[in-house]
Design goal:
The protein folds into two domains: 178 residues, no CATH class; 205 residues, Nucleotidyltransferase, domain 5 (2-Layer Sandwich), CATH 3.30.420. It has ten helices and 14 strands. Strands 2-6-7-1-5-4-3 form a seven-stranded antiparallel β-sheet. It has a five-stranded mixed β-sheet with strand order 10-9-8-11-12. A two-stranded antiparallel sheet has the order 13-14. Helix 1 crosses helix 3, helix 2 runs antiparallel to helix 3 and helix 6 crosses helix 9. The protein is α+β, with helices and mostly antiparallel strands and 396 residues long. The two termini are 25 Å apart. The longest helix has 35 residues. This is Transposase. Keywords: DNA recombination, DNA-binding, Metal-binding, Transposition, Zinc. GO terms for molecular function: DNA binding; metal ion binding. It comes from Nonomuraea deserti.
Length: 396
C-alpha cells in the first residue's frame, strides 16, 4: 500500500523569474487580505457571513478586471489561497466553540505570507516540465515560466500538489505525492518506549539516548546581535530589508539543523525497533506562558520561559511527526499513550508518588527502593502502557 510523502527542493530561478515569484506572492497576499476585508465588512455592515464558495465565484470577475495583475496567475492557486483563509475562519470558530482563546484571522503583512500552493499538478503548474532535458529538472508555473530545480533525490509516487515557498532570499518547491511505495524494513523483534526530554531529546526504555543538539542555543548570540541590528534600522529602508534577510537566514539554518537531527534520530529508532511507544504530548499546552498579567505576573515566570524555550528548541512536535511518517513507510507500529504519572510511577512495583522523582535525572522508589535513571524509568512505563493498549486492541 502506498503512503503520502512530501519532497522539498531548492529552486534556481533567474533574476526575472525571482521577480515574478515575488510578484506572484504579493498578489496572492493582496487577494488574501482583500477576501478577509470582504468578510469583515459584510458581517460588520449587514451581519452576513461570506463563505468560500461566494468568494471563489467572484474570482472570475476579479481576474477580468485586473488582467495584468491577478489575471496573470493560476485560477486554481488563487482558489487555494481563498481556501487557506476559509480554513483560518473554521479554526477560529472551532476555538470559540471549544472555549479557547479564539485568535481572529489577521491581515497578512509583508513577510508574513510566504507560500503559494497549486492544488493539482497540471493545472497552472507542471512538475518536471522539460523531461527531455539531459541534466536538469524544471517546474513550470503559470505566469513565471520553467524554473530550474535543484533535485537532489528522486521523486516517487504521483505528484498531487505543488507549493512554492520563500525563505529569506531563497525559494523552495514542495511536492505532496500520493501512492509513494512503502519501504518496509526487516523485522527486529524489539520494542521500545521513548521518553521525550530537554536534557536528552529521546531516552529509550533499554537505556539508549539521543542527545538534544540545542541548535537554537548555539546560535542565540548571533540571533541576538542580528535582532539588535534590525531594531536600529529605519523601517522601509534598504538596510532594514537586508537585515531582515540576514535574520531570516539564521533562523532558516536553525530550522534545517533541527530537521536534519530529527530525521537522523527517527531513522535510528525505526531501524532498531518494530514497536515504538511514545507519550501523547500536548506541546501547545506545555509551552504556554505563565499565567498572570504584567502587574501581577504568574509564579516562576523566568523558569517557565526557559523551559518553554528548551522544549521548542528540542523540536518534539517536528520529531514525532517525522517519526510517524518514517514508521508508516517502514511498516513499524507507533503507539501513543497518556503520559500521566509515567515519570512518578515505579517501573518495578508500580508505586506512584511525586517523592519517587528525587531529582531531574534520578528516580528512587519510596516503596521498594528501586533506583534508575528517571528518563529510563519513565520510558519503561511508557512501553508497558503501549504494549497493554496493543494487546487490548488485538483482543477486541
Amino acid at each position: 500500500m502506498g503512503v503520502r510523502r512530501s519532497f522539498t527542493f531548492l529552486l534556481r530561478p533567474t533574476v526575472r523569474q525571482a521577480a515574478a515569484l515575488a510578484a506572484c506572492l504579493e498578489d496572492h497576499r493582496t487577494l488574501y487580505n482583500a477576501a478577509l476585508e470582504h468578510r469583515r465588512t459584510a458581517y460588520a455592515k449587514a451581519g452576513v457571513s461570506v463563505r468560500y464558495g461566494e468568494q471563489s465565484a467572484e474570482l472570475k470577475h476579479i481576474r477580468a478586471d485586473d488582467p495584468a495583475g491577478q489575471g496573470r496567475w493560476s485560477f486554481s492557486s488563487q482558489q487555494s489561497t481563498l481556501r487557506r483563509l476559509d480554513k483560518a475562519f473554521r479554526g477560529f470558530f472551532d476555538r470559540v466553540k471549544a472555549a479557547r482563546t479564539p485568535g481572529f484571522p489577521r491581515f497578512k503583512g509583508r513577510g508574513w505570507f510566504d507560500t503559494v500552493e497549486w492544488p493539482k499538478d497540471g493545472d497552472g503548474c507542471r512538475w518536471n516540465s522539460q523531461p527531455e532535458h539531459p541534466t536538469a529538472t524544471y517546474v513550470r508555473l503559470q505566469g513565471i515560466g520553467h524554473v530550474r530545480v535543484h533535485q537532489h533525490r528522486p521523486v516517487s509516487g504521483r505528484v498531487k500538489t505543488i507549493s512554492v515557498k520563500r525563505e529569506g532570499s531563497r525559494w523552495f518547491v514542495a511536492l505532496s505525492c500520493d501512492d509513494v511505495p512503502a519501504e518496509p524494513l526487516p523485522a527486529t523483534g524489539a520494542a521500545a518506549g521513548i521518553d521525550m526530554g530537554v536534557a536528552a531529546l529521546v531516552t529509550t526504555s533499554d537505556g539508549g539516548r539521543v542527545a538534544h543538539a540545542r541548535h537554537l542555543a548555539a546560535t542565540a548570540d548571533r540571533l541576538a546581535d542580528a535582532q539588535r541590528d534590525l531594531a536600529r534600522k529605519k523601517r522601509g529602508s534598504r538596510r532594514r530589508r537586508k537585515q531582515v534577510a540576514r535574520l531570516a537566514a539564521l533562523h532558516g539554518k536553525v530550522r534545517r539543523q533541527r530537521l536534519d537531527h530529527a530525521h537522523k534520530a527517527a531513522n535510528t529508532l525505526v531501524g532498531d525497533y518494530d514497536v515504538i511507544v511514545h507519550e501523547d504530548l500536548r506541546i501547545a499546552s506545555m509551552t504556554r506562558s505563565s499565567s498572570g498579567t504584567i502587574e501581577t505576573p504568574g509564579r516562576n515566570v523566568a523558569q517557565k520561559s526557559g523551559l518553554n524555550r528548551s522544549i521548542l528548541d528540542a523540536g518534539w512536535g517536528v520529531f514525532l511527526t517525522i517519526l510517524a511518517h518514517k514508521a508508516e513507510s517502514a511498516g513499524r507500529k507507533l503507539i501513543a499513550v497518556n503520559p500521566r504519572n509515567t515519570s512518578r510511577t515505579c517501573a518495578r512495583c508500580g508505586h506512584c508518588a511525586k517523592e519517587n522523582r528525587v531529582t531531574q535525572a534520578d528516580f528512587a522508589c519510596a516503596a521498594c527502593g528501586h533506583t534508575a535513571h528517571a528518563d529510563v524509568n519513565a520510558a519503561t512505563n511508557i512501553l508497558r502502557a503501549g504494549l497493554a493498549l496493543r494487546q487490548a486492541a488485538q483482543a477486541a
